[in-house]
Structures are given as structure tokens and as C-alpha cells.
Design goal:
Elements (H helix, E strand, L loop, with lengths): L7 E3 L7 E4 L4 E3 L9 E2 L3 E2 L5 E7 L2 E6 H9 L8 E4 L12 E4 L1 H6 L3 H9 L6 H42 L3
Antiparallel strand pairs: 1-2, 2-3, 3-4, 5-6, 6-7, 8-9
């Protein structure tokens, strides 16, 4: 079986900084100011979707990868708000697995209701479970915040090196 060719497109609002591929990958076009391209790592959210942090002008924003793929590669003439994973696998963000749809269509798609009812059958959403979920979100946010701090420090160091280089070369 031939694998489809990977096609890259700029992410709207991040042109020249980041690109998304038709296979569901995201890359930086200037990794840590080196001019090198690098595939960006993602986080998996509590609802099992892959999420990515994009940086621009010192600000960080989070995006679901499936949404970036759909925005870049799939026309949405009906202005549908939701993206459906046709194979019901949130890890598969390839363009051929995604489609724009309504919330109702997405909820009723495939085995979704059956899986949800089976997964929650006899379970109660206890205060303990709620606390566990909140702790998980706090840990995730702490990790993302630490990553942002590291990148900010690295950028400041690069800026200092650039200033020294410029002063030595009388720019």
C-alpha cells in the first residue's frame, strides 16, 4: 500500500512560523531561532485529543491538531463548527479521516453513543473523580507553563547572543 505524500501548509495566523501537514503533523519553521524545521510535539488532552501550543509575539495559544488540519485542508462551505474523526480514533488526524459536521451529527456518528453508555454504565461521577480530573489538568497546565518559561529563557539568551554578535560586527 502506498502512503500518501505529506503536504505542508502554513497555519493561518502563523504564516512563516508553523505549518500543518495533511497527515496531522505540525512543525516549526524556525525552531528556537535556528532556522531549522522541527516537528512539534503535542500533548494529549483529558478528552484524548492531540493539542499543540503555538507561540507568536511572546504569546501562547493552544489548538487541537485535528482542527488545524481541517482548517488548512478541508473546505467548509456550510460553515460547520465541528470536526468528526471518521474512524472514531482521535489519534488519527490525517485529512482523509476528518470531515466538517454539525454537533448533532458528531454525537450520533458510528458507535459513539454505544461506547459512551458502555463506558459509563453503572459509574457515578463522584467528587473523588472530579478532583482527580482537576489535578490532572493542573499538572498539564504546570508542564505547559514550564515549557513556555524554558522557551522564553532560551529566546532571551538568543537575543543576548545576537546583541553581542551585532556589537562585535558593528551592526
Amino acid at each position: 500500500m502506498l502512503l500518501p505524500k505529506q503536504i505542508w501548509k502554513d497555519i493561518e495566523g502563523y504564516e512563516g512560523l508553523y505549518q500543518v501537514s495533511n497527515t496531522g503533523k505540525v512543525r516549526s519553521l524556525n525552531y528556537k531561532g535556528t532556522g531549522k524545521k522541527k516537528i512539534w510535539k503535542y500533548a494529549i488532552t483529558i478528552n484524548t485529543y492531540k493539542q499543540i501550543a503555538l507561540y507568536k509575539n511572546g504569546e501562547i495559544k493552544y489548538y487541537y491538531i485535528h482542527r488545524l488540519v481541517a482548517l488548512a485542508f478541508i473546505p467548509n462551505p456550510n460553515n460547520y463548527p465541528v470536526i468528526n474523526h471518521k474512524d472514531e480514533n482521535p489519534d488519527n488526524n490525517a485529512v482523509w479521516n476528518l470531515e466538517w459536521c454539525t454537533q448533532e451529527y458528531n454525537i450520533n456518528y458510528g458507535n459513539c453513543r454505544k461506547k459512551m453508555s458502555k463506558a459509563h454504565k453503572g459509574k457515578q461521577f463522584t467528587e473523588e473523580r472530579r478532583k482527580k480530573l482537576n489535578e490532572g489538568m493542573k499538572r498539564r497546565n504546570l508542564i505547559l507553563h514550564r515549557d513556555l518559561e524554558r522557551q522564553t529563557r532560551a529566546k532571551k539568551q538568543l537575543d543576548k547572543v545576537q546583541q553581542i554578535y551585532d556589537s562585535c560586527h558593528h551592526k
